[in-house]
Amino acid sequence: SLVVLFGATAGAYGAKLGSDERELILLVWQVVDLHSKKVGTLHKSLVKADNLDLSDQCREVSGLTPEGLGKAEPLDRVLQQFSQLVSSDLKVLGRSSYTLCSDGQLLIRQVLHPETSKKNFLLSDCFYSFYDLRKEFHTCYPSSAAVKDQTIKTMAEYLGLGTDEAEEDFGVWQVKTMVAIIFSMLSEGCNHVFTEPETVKYKYETGPCSKSETVDSETVIRARGLPWQSSDQDIARFFKGLNIAKGGVALCLNSQGRRNGEALVRFVNSEQRDLALERHKHHMGSRYIEVYKATGEEFLKIAGGTSNEVAQFLSKENQVIIRMRGLPFTATQEDVLGFLGPECPVTGGKEGLLFVKYPDGRPTGDAFVLFSCEEYAQNALKKHKEILGKRYIELFRSTAAEVQQVLNRYMSTPLIPTLPTPIIPVIPSPYTIATGSIRDCVRLRGLPYTAGIDDILEFMGDATGDIKPHGVHMVLNQQGRPSGDAFIQMKSADKAFMVAQKCHKKMMKDRYVEVFQCSGEEMNFVLMGGTLNRSGLSPPPCKLPCLSPPAYAAFQTAAVIPAEAAALYQPQALLPTTRTPQASAAAPPAVTYYPAQAAQLYMNYTAYYPSPPVSPTTVGYIAAPPGAVAAAATATHTPILPQPGALVRMQGLPYNTGMKEILSFFQGYQYAPDDYNGLIQLSDQARSVLQAPKEWVCL
Q1: For the whole prediction, is pTM greater than 0.85?
Q2: Residue 456: helix, strand or coil by DSSP?
Q3: Considering the chain, what is the average pLDDT of its residues?
Q4: Residue ranges of the RRM domain (predicted)?
């Protein structure tokens, strides 16, 4: 038997049913005996929604009113009545089992399952299997319109059924017409058999994902705006009614290994993915979630793994994964099992523990634990921030994809962290950085964070012709993001004055921008990390007595990097040779130049960084290849390491640590006594290039 089911919500109708998150307000159904071709009683039931504000389309199509719905029963009571009435009709027809049949998938997948999930009550088993009449019709009549273009009306017209929609109540006509369509499909000419129903997964299945898998980009979405504490089960609940692939939820982590509020979700097919996209800006609790298309490569980058140890750990299916963070480095498996206690037994004992380690085997303080059921996992989460040894331990819900991400991140960490590729100024002539007190520059403050160079040029209008070549300087903050400031070098002080008068508080992308006239010296102070306000100039940290780099200068002569920096500032970070600090005559004028002072590159320590793509031609930024470094600083090479591996790097030292404290720390070990200054404490210039005042290098 089939139970033909039709429903409507208080919002959108037709192809957009359920996309606006509105509640169900109408259910109409009728039992059909496929063998005897008899039907049961047609039932129509109104549903009382929590929000009785009906959309204009709903009022027009259904003819329902808030007053009429106010007297109806809530959804849970209506579903109980549905089960009782269907059972009664089946007995009359001499049948015992049935399957639902609906006009498309939206009513079941996009309305009933999400709404009941939010209202925290369970649907009966019959709602997890149903026939899509549109698909069955297209199978029976292949020459008909595509499934996505089918409606009850188009199917009836294709069969030539002469039903008048205006003669029946809303919902009643739809169910009667669907029954007539089914009987036509069962006629002798077609003899259609309903054999393969659509299914809805009862629960999300966890599992590992290998980087060698092929993931169809048409099945992946990116969800953004998730609460940081949300788990894969929470995300699966948000997409309730849609079939997520096994292990198809991958929570994204930031550079610190913490969740960033995004997740990649992989569905079993493109049809399910398309339905998921319709849940854009639906709510998870009080937060709306953005849903966008993503690619299979993005999913594998987050969820894929290659470690056999991880694959074996995740091979135990239907386990709840808990992440432990902040474990003592000396913690053993026995310590963790003892911390969790007998009230939350770990699946497989020690086999249910996975410690996260660096490539050299050192512990990171993270571990993942498997539990066989939700009850044990909840007991474990109650131990959040309890003490193990002398440290409190954080516990969170986790996912198989998060296990892969964390392991991939730590296992790819080099044993000896290398320094970033050096930033080297390239100085093509004839342009120079503005200096002096001539007020031929303007400062833009309050720019939208999304503003780019094109937006600034459009903002300047006709004055763009008076900007010096490559004279626009975007200013970034410490995180490398736009700070809302920019400096522009004009051809003269008069031009700068006119721009400041004309553009001050002019609008850019719904924000007004302040424009001030300033000098090249003031601009350089801010670009170096100082502040420019009504009270005057506050020097940048590199101008203060505690650091030695001299005043910012126009880079017009070439010099080499200081010896200490040259020895350290290489792609490999640790080199067996150093260079004598002398000018290089071999470097051709068109390639890489090294300024006389290493801290002149807008390298500040607190506030601002200029963005490399828009710096003036006098100071462009490129990553120097090793050949360029060698060509610009060719000199005699003297070994500084008596043997490989004799150089060590210290991190996390107090800022006031001096040479005596370092020597005392290494008391009892033999160190190179000939050059403490060059081999132990980095000079201020080298520290400026490295930007690491807490680091020392020792022999």
Answers
A1: no
A2: helix
A3: 77
A4: 320-400
